[in-house]
Amino acid sequence: MTDEDPTDRNAGDSREGADANFDGRKAPNVDSDSRETPNAVNRESLNVDSGRELPDGGSLDGEAADGGTVTGNEIPVQGAVSDALTAATHPSRSTVRHWLTTTNHKDVGILYIVTSLFFLLLGGLLAWLMRIQLWEPRAVGEGLLGAMAYNQAVSAHGLVMVFWFLSPFAFGFANYVVPLQMGADDLAFPRLNALSFWLYLASGLLFVVSFFQGGTFAGGWTMYAPLNLPTFTPDVGANTAILALVLFVVSVTVSSVNFLTTMHRMRAEGLTLRRLPIFSWSILLTVWMMLFAFAALLAALLILSSDRILGTAYFVQETAGGTLLWTHLFWFFGHPEVYIVFFPALGIMAEVFQTFTGRRIVGRKWFIAAMVLVALQSFVVWMHHMFLTGINLEIKTLFMVTTIGISLPFDLMVFALIYTLVKGRVRFTTPFLFAFGGLLLFILGGITGVFLGAIVLDYEFRGTYWVVAHFHYVMVGGVTALIGGLYYWFPKITGRMYDEFLGKAHFAAYFVGFNLLYFPMFVAWETPRRVFQYDAWMAPWHKLATVGAFILGLSFVLMFYNLTKSAFDGERVGNTPWEFSRTAEWAVPSPPPTENFPGVPTYRDGHLAFRSREATDGGSSATSTQPDGGVAADGHAGEHDHGTHASIWPFAVSVGGFLLFLGLSGIREGSLVEGMAGTAYLLAAVAGGLVVFGSLVAWALEPFDSPEGGFGEAWPFDGVENGKVGMWIFLASDVVLFGGFIGAYVFTRVAAGWTGWHPVPEDPIPGLVNTYILLASSFTVVLALVAAQKEHRWGVVASLTATIVLGIGFLGNKGLEWLHLFHTGVEPTATIQTSTFFLTTGLHAAHVIAGLIGALYLLGRSLGGAYLSDHRPVEYFGLYWHFVDIVWLFLFPLFYIL
Amino acid sequence: MAIHAAGSVVPIPLQAELVPRGTRTVVFERIFEVFLALGTLVGVVVVAYMVYNAYKYRDGADREDDFDPPVLGELPTGGGGGRKLFTSFALSTVIVVSLISWTYLTLLYVEDPPEPEMEVEVEGYQFGWDFTYPNGHESDVLRVPRDEVIQLRVTSSDVFHNFGVAELRVKTDAVPGQTTTTWFEADETGNYTAQCYELCGSGHSYMTATVVVMEPDEYREWYANTTADSS
To answer: Does the pLDDT at position A620 exceed 80?
Structure first.
């Protein structure tokens, strides 16, 4: 354990002169375009001011400093620091209410970490069940698990580990650390951040429920069609598992939009993208990949849910190309997902290596360039999972080349990490051991992955334990580094040190268990995946693996004991327990105060400094690079008022979402399950829908302070306010969602024969009329914005009313068209033609309905004279509405003309 | 482009020795051995180098004076050692690219097999395999002659399966509504087991079929006595 006083201090590094300068530069900018929270919150300026008048609540998220009226902030920097120390042991943190309503990124980060570890236990338990079954080759009915129970364990293990453990675990750290590293007070949309977490928990619990509804999904984590349809996996629990995934993807999308807005808009002054620490870089790229990859998965899952619940015909075996459609959609998501789960681990390795070698990473810019390259390329390698599906040689060659291409940047990253050791001062602490071990395992996973890149070998490895062993070395290798991250940041998060001896013991048991578990799988690689009957000669290897699984699993007992105990009585740490720590999270107390920094962080002079949050108080709160958080400055016992910083609605929305999706699971191909259960499901769905709707309305009306961005480095979004950036990013993911649906349509149509497929509505006139209606409504939205800019209240009201009338007209016209089609026997479930028509245009109609709800809300507020001084909500609504119109301009020719 | 490349490699005289030919078992084993040898070598060297350096530069009493540690709050920059990084990167690129290019030549061979002696239709179902011979004979056992190239046309009547015979190194997806083709040549008589390699439901673990490789004469005698009826 290294407890030395860290780096030299630059305490005398006062910057009063610069302060005034800084604030003078910043204030007008912020005042003019970012007074109101972007978060579709639409709170009145009045609310901001009243919030700021609270003695200290308003200052918590830096709103006061950013809001333009800097002199209104009454809290000196020193006071803020002592606040922080109280916050560390603040009684409110031990209340349930605090955790249900918190929106602070650090709290949310802790929630993510703790919850994901729970899912690690669940996934691990399922793995143990599998390993027990694999102890020896089993005949029919032998062993602990029946055939379907085994398939459920296999499928749920994969889904839980990939979705509910790996990424959320990494995003616990991302939540906690990234805002600290980049100098933000919080994420751009704190309530959306809380929503991401609660939706994640709700989706995970929904998945747990699926086990008790006749059995969870048993078709493998890849969910290949048509095994994923009720014909083959009829349990209600299978529906629930798929819907749980949908809810999870919603959580991820919300989180992605939030992180991207934050990371592009809210970096400290002087902290350009190129200068971002590598962990933050890895998260930035991960989130960009998530935004697009998960949108593709959402398209796949919505289509699958529709097939299961409504009975559409995308993936049924009669549909030409339906089976392959699923593999394309899934792997278009699935391959980037590999990097999505691995990148954060890579970022942690880089951080931990640098800290515990005392060296800056070798070839930093090349390391980052390599990551960027991988992130881009990850979207063009998906077909290497499909080499045996009958794709032609040209495509195989292309995907072999891209696959090998994507492996090379990793070579560079691995060498960069290894060379960072050279001439360093390597300290074998627990975090370093895990990061080092993780790299070692990843190297083995990488080498065995090159085997799979050779198509001739891939043909034979397909569906065998070679693949299983390879991706566990890669992904659990990544987990190894993530656990290193847990030890690394544990003192920061808890303010206390873990027990180093137990940490090392954990690593030893973990590393031995890992290799005992996964290495024998390379030897016994000819075992087919997902079976429990295999050649007898492999039995010793499988026994070894099972023993390894138990050692690996039990090693976590040491970790849980160590960390739980240390969280309460570990040795207290100051800002940093680590010699040679560099990044900003180590420059603040452990745990950091609610508002993170004692002043506004800046790198303008080439290193971190905190400027006073107020221009007038610059002298007394002289800034330093090393605020002395270790010494508690007593005397400020004031309770934080969370009135503008806490919200119950993210939790409430998630409860509603849970009920709604649970209720939907009770529908199979258009009809409810029989009996009382059916009624219960229906009630749950209705209740859930109402709770979601009510909570969203309450959310919109709740006054809430979000931190603003744009005070530092905001390339490439300088001058574009957070809310607008968020909307753009969300729409980018929506483009991929519609892209998935349109792609599915084109793919199945080509498979069925393009010319033999006629538009479903014989009469294109209703569609044409709807095209004009939507174009007209886009025009009225523009008029609403113009009226708002001219502060013409009734102009806004009239234009919005016209928009709503046109929107309702669109839906009414579509409703008549659909009714007519139903009467003539054209049903969504009939054929793939009708399925694609109704589902794709239905998705568009759902977007119109969501837009109308938003428009009604705007209309209600505008009657009271809202948006005249601040027209941004109208503008953002317009962005969404125009996007929905543009989508229709694609759908109309595709589904009515061609 | 790929096809053109295929045409152009054929005349190279060395190619026969360089690029493995023969049954798919031979081809696989040869490439697998080379990969295993090189992979082990690279793995051992890299891991040993890594562990050696971690040990060599372990923190101790003798801290060198020229050590320039990072400072808390500094803007991130890179450390030295870029040249070594690029040398290693270039080396690994050469190894990986040449290995893969080499196997690509074999892929072209595997993708363009010798003229098959016989073509058998394979249909997977939950949970078994159905084989149909050119004369219409159907069976749940696949009988083939030794030393002859057999082509398989594989499909599925329900869900996604994957037909594979591990020992003969033949494998292809069985996709409903679609046919994939593959080929193999067995050089030893005996019984082999075909298995499903894609999770397909409760019977997946036991979705096997017997493949019998017979002496060609014996096979022809057996085949002559089969009819379109199921056996």
So the answer is: no
For residue A140, pLDDT beyond 60: yes
Side chain identity, residue A643: G
Distance CA A513, CA A547 (A): 8
8 A C-beta contact, residue A784 and residue A874:
yes
Query: What is the rounded distance in angstroms from the CA atom of residue A869 to the CA atom of residue A851?
Result: 23
Segment A582-603, tens digit of pLDDT:
999 999 999 999 889 998 999 9
Q: Which residues pair with B161 in a beta bridge?
A: B174
Tell me if A609 and B73 make a contact (CB, 8 A cut-off). yes
Distance of alpha carbon A401 from alpha carbon A425, whole angstroms? 39
Is the pLDDT score of A22 beyond 50?
no
* Residue A811: CATH number of its domain: 1.20.120.80
Six token digits for residue A216: 């969870």
Instruction: Report yes or no on A848 lying in a domain.
Output: yes
Q: Which residues pair with A4 in a beta bridge?
A: none
Say if residues A289 and A378 touch (Cβ distance below 8 Å): yes
Residues 6+ apart with CB under 8 A from B217: none
User: Other C-beta atoms within 10 Å of B26: how many?
Assistant: 14
Section A240-247 average pLDDT: 97
Report the share of chain A in percent with pLDDT over 90. Answer: 73
Q: Tokens at residue A675, please?
A: 């009996």
* Tokens describing residue A294: 């998960």
Residues 6+ apart with CB under 8 A from A538: A524, A526, A527
ipTM value: 0.91
Residue with tokens 């070579």: A411
Domain boundaries, position A886 = 758-898
Q: Which residues contact B189 (CB under 8 A, 6 or more apart)?
A: B146, B213, B214, B215
Q: Residue B22: helix, strand or coil by DSSP?
A: coil
Residue A474 reports pLDDT greater than 50 = yes
What mean pLDDT is predicted for residues A798-825? 94
In chain B, CATH 2.60.40.420 sits at 118-224
Express each pLDDT in A660-682 by its tens digit: 999 999 998 888 888 889 999 99
Question: Does the beta carbon of B155 lie under 8 angstroms from any beta carbon of chain A?
Answer: no
Pairing relation of β-strands A609-611 and A667-668? unpaired
Report the number of distinct structural domains present in chain A: 1
Distance from C-alpha of A54 to C-alpha of A47, rounded to nearest angstrom: 11
Q: Does the CB of B49 have a partner CB in chain A at under 8 Å? A: yes
Has residue A460 got a pLDDT over 90?
yes
- Per DSSP, chain B holds a count of helices (H) and strands (E) of 5, 10
More confident residue, A389 or A641: A389
Residue range A530-542: mean pLDDT, rounded: 94
Prior bond to A91 cis, omega within 30?
A: no
Spans of chain B, pLDDT less than 50: 1-15
- The CATH H-level superfamily of B118-224 is Cupredoxins -  blue copper proteins (2.60.40.420)
Substitution target in A317, A415, A507, A626 with the highest count of B β-carbons within 10 Å is A415
What is the C-alpha to C-alpha distance for residues A179 and A695, in angstroms, rounded to an integer? 27
Is A28 domain-assigned?
no
Question: Contact B198/A463, CB-based, under 8 Å?
Answer: yes
Among candidates B1, B49, B78 on the partner chain, residue whose Cβ is nearest the Cβ of A360: B78
User: Does B85 contact A416 at a Cβ distance shorter than 8 Å?
Assistant: yes
State how far the alpha carbon of A29 is from the alpha carbons of A309, A651, A873, in Å.
51, 34, 19
With vertex at residue A189, the alpha carbon angle to CA A184 and CA A190, rounded to the nearest 5 degrees, is 80
Percentage of residues of chain A with pLDDT beyond 70: 86
β-pair partners for B195: B164, B208
Compute the mean pLDDT over every residue in chain A, rounded to the nearest whole number.
86
Determine contact, residues A200/A168, Cβ cutoff 8 Å.
Answer: yes
**Is A823 part of a structural domain of the chain?**
yes
Q: Which residues contact A93 (CB under 8 A, 6 or more apart)?
A: A87, A99, A107
Q: Domain for residue A892, yes or no?
A: yes
